[in-house]
Design brief:
Blueprint: E1 11-15, H1 44-56, E2 61-65, H2 75-83, E3 90-95, H3 104-110, E4 114-118, H4 124-131, H5 136-149, E5 154-160, H6 167-179, E6 182-187, E7 212-215, E8 220-222, E9 231-232, H7 233-236, H8 238-248
Parallel strand pairs: 1-2, 1-7, 2-3, 3-4, 4-5, 5-6
Antiparallel strand pairs: 7-8, 8-9
The structure holds iron/sulfur cluster.
Length: about 270
């Protein structure tokens, strides 16, 4: 479907949880955030239903996000349900990679096509300082397992403060080149103030060419990351929620202060 700015909307980012096993400084405070209640979270059947309706409305590309999607139990089952839907042409996932090493093969077997892995530093001390919890060795093992399993292309999302010339970013770029992975540089974003820019090496943040909607883990279709607009799939039904979201999709992002990044899925 086309929105009122004649953009073809064919991509749905699906957040399966707002929970995460890391506490990245640019995303969450050390003590974490108040999480959504379990009963508010969509079941896998509800997510599959929304994806089926989206396919019927012309969506073809789907990406599983979080929080951290791999903290949700049984994720390969959801992947299998979605990959069986006729018309799902591209099924991808964005993950922090810390739990990927021993699940990559099962995700591939279930029908996942490719992954983006978040990696902001190669130095173990720097990585721990940024994520507050993680081990960079787990992420490297996750990336290698994804490559071995054929979840390709494996792309790396590297958050930067100002420039890809920052030492951590240069180290990640060198690692990516070594592994044959494309590295995309994402400037730190700030939802409440509307601070964002185009992803270097990607299409995120490019409003004139925006092709996406987001489904939150508690069932809201959001037409734009930098907006408070949202439409409930439980109240309206997926088709109506998607239709209203596309009709209301803003020309460009402004700001969002009713949700944090982990509650939308980036
Ligand atoms: S800010 Fe909104 S319109 Fe712009 S690229 Fe992001 S989601 Fe699309």
């Amino acid at each position: 479907m086309r929105d009122s700015f004649d953009r073809e909307i064919t991509y749905l980012r699906v957040s399966v949880t707002d929970r995460c096993n890391l506490r990245c400084r640019y995303c969450m405070p050390a003590e974490g955030l108040r999480m959504l209640r379990h009963e508010d979270i969509l079941s896998y059947e509800e997510i599959a239903d929304a994806v089926s309706e989206a396919v019927a409305m012309g969506f073809r590309k789907f990406r599983l996000t979080g929080g951290e999607p791999l903290v949700r139990r049984g994720l390969p089952d959801l992947v299998a349900m979605l990959s069986r839907i006729d018309g799902v042409e591209d099924l991808a996932m964005t993950t922090n990679g810390t739990l990927l090493a021993d699940r990559a093969a099962a995700l591939k077997g279930a029908g996942l096509g490719r992954v983006n892995v978040s990696l902001d530093a190669m130095d173990a001390i720097r990585y721990k300082a940024i994520t507050r919890r993680g081990n960079v060795a787990d992420v490297v093992a996750g990336i290698d397992a994804a490559i071995a399993a054929g979840l390709t292309p494996v792309k790396i999302n590297c958050v930067i403060a100002e420039s890809p010339d920052e030492p951590d970013a240069r180290a990640v770029a060198a690692f990516g080149a070594e592994r044959g992975c494309q590295v995309r540089f994402i400037h730190e974003m700030d939802l409440p103030t509307g601070k964002f820019s185009i992803v270097q090496g990607g299409n995120g943040g490019n409003c004139p060419a925006c092709d996406r909607l987001r489904l939150t883990s508690d069932g809201f279709i959001r037409p734009c990351l930098f907006s408070n607009l949202k439409y409930s799939v439980r109240e309206l039904g997926p088709r109506q929620a998607i239709r209203q979201a596309i009709a209301a999709k803003p020309e460009a992002g402004r700001a969002c202060d009713d949700r944090t990044m982990n509650g939308i899925g980036g």
